[in-house]
Design goal:
Strand content: under 5%
Number of helices: 6
Helix content: over 70%
Shape: globular
Distance between the termini: 18 Å
Largest sheet: none
Order of helices and strands: HHHHHH
Number of strands: 0
């Protein structure tokens, strides 16, 4: 598993995947020490039916904080977000949380595409293009996060 410092976006997606796995297959909770620990955390945090581990929420908050600072500091990053904005707005409008952050929307997009691929469902060229843009944004954020010494 990549650590949060190695690639924070992959870390968040990994935690979401484990949450879904433990909800779907609770009998596997003791399969490994890591699964057992995460399962216990999910029970303590009361998210066995939905929601995300505080670890994932905190990591997402850190990524969003970095995103906000880069919007002010990096013109190329800002341009990438502006290009992606119409697609993110469409995605948000289709959810029950249309005010979610752009970064959370990017992560949800990638997670949903991963689920579609696991089901062997076709991904349209338009969706593939948006996936590529969202991936580039998250890669840039993750790389910047890994190089930022003041972050945990």
């Amino acid at each position: 598993m990549k650590t949060k410092r190695d690639n924070i976006a992959e870390y968040i997606l990994y935690l979401w995947q484990i949450e879904d796995y433990l909800r779907a297959f609770p009998e596997q909770a003791k399969a490994t020490p890591e699964l057992s620990e995460l399962n216990e955390m999910m029970h303590r945090e009361g998210i066995m039916d939905g929601g995300h581990l505080q670890l994932a929420v905190n990591a997402l908050n850190e990524l969003e904080e970095l995103h906000r600072s880069l919007l002010d500091e990096d013109a190329l990053y800002r341009a990438a977000i502006i290009r992606l904005q119409p697609s993110l707005n469409l995605l948000k409008a289709k959810t029950d949380r249309p005010t979610m952050s752009d970064i959370e929307a990017c992560l949800i997009l990638l997670y949903q595409i991963m689920l579609l691929r696991l089901q062997h469902k076709e991904i349209s060229p338009e969706t593939g293009s948006v996936q590529q843009q969202a991936t580039q944004v998250l890669q840039f954020l993750s790389k910047t996060y890994s190089l930022t010494p003041t972050l945990p």
